Amino acid sequence: MQTVRDLESLRQAIAGWQADGCRVALVPTMGALHAGHMALVEAARRPGTKVVASIFVNPKQFGPNEDLARYPRREMADARLLADNGCDLLWLPPVEAMYPDGFATTVSVSGVSEGFDGASRPGHFDGVATVVAKLFNQTRADVAYFGEKDFQQLAVIRRMVADLDMAIEIVGVPTQRDDDGLALSSRNIYLDEEQRAKAVALPRALGVAARAIGRGDTSETALAEARSTLVAAGFEVDYVALVDSETLVEHPLADRPRRLLAAARMGTTRLIDNIAVEPNA
Ligand code: PAF
């Protein structure tokens, strides 16, 4: 695996592959890689495709009171994991390459980015959309892979790509979970043993609510029960909501693909999760 830290070398490597008729698949990350990221790399690996992973802890998507300074950084271990999993190139841009002096552009996707995490974390999705647009332009990738765990992020990126006619395919990859069901996240390492044990209430509460709604139970009741379960487990609930899977509008019609979204804080750690609502599940 090649590791590249400047844009010219990145462009050269990618132009060479594209001249040879290869497709380029991008896996954007902020590092602290785990099996969830490796599922993205695995999905990206196809005959005739070169896989580029990026690691960039993007300051623009962290609020002033968020965990930018303590966000885990493990460049060596991440690089090893990517190489072992068949990644072809690691793009590790320094902050000055991403946001040089005078940088003045923000990509802002309205609607789908406004509720839920967008409401709790003002500016977060502007930061995500801006850096992802840059990564798409830098790599000129044909396809990019994102985890469904960040469901709203995926919806924002799909909207941006559609609205701006970006010539890139977006693939969502199902959430990878620990054996007890907790979604894998780089932030899980902030949980102590007791909090980690309690955190399993999040996927469980969502599963119970999704099954109830799928059976036709009133969604308000199911959502209220999920919130109570989370509070009883020690979470401070940010939101639990039933949305249309594409637009993220609440109160979706039952014949549309629907998703339950949740965010809740265990101590100082904010966890998010989501699950599809299948009819008659
Ligand atoms: O999901 C993430 O890790 C980040 O939000 C992303 C997409 C790499 C943009 O910084």
Task: Give the secondary structure arrangement, pairings included.
Blueprint: E1 2-4, H1 7-19, E2 23-29, H2 35-44, E3 49-55, H3 75-84, E4 89-91, H4 95-98, H5 117-120, H6 124-139, E5 143-147, H7 151-163, E6 169-173, H8 193-199, H9 201-215, H10 219-232, E7 236-244, E8 258-266, E9 269-277
Parallel strand pairs: 1-4, 2-3, 2-5, 3-4, 5-6
Antiparallel strand pairs: 7-8, 8-9
The structure holds pantoate (PAF).
Give a written overview of the molecule:
This protein is of the alpha/beta class. The chain has 2 domains: 2-173, Rossmann fold; 186-274, Pantoate--beta-alanine Ligase, Chain: A,domain 2, CATH 3.30.1300. Helices cover 38% and strands 20% of the residues. The chain has 10 helices and 9 strands. A 6-stranded parallel beta sheet has the order 1-4-3-2-5-6, sandwiched between helices. It has a 3-stranded antiparallel beta sheet with strand order 7-8-9, covered by helices on one side. A hairpin with a 2-residue loop joins strand 8 (258-266) and strand 9 (269-277). Helix 6 packs across helix 7 and helix 9 (201-215) runs antiparallel to helix 10 (219-232). The protein starts with a strand and ends with a strand. The protein binds pantoate.
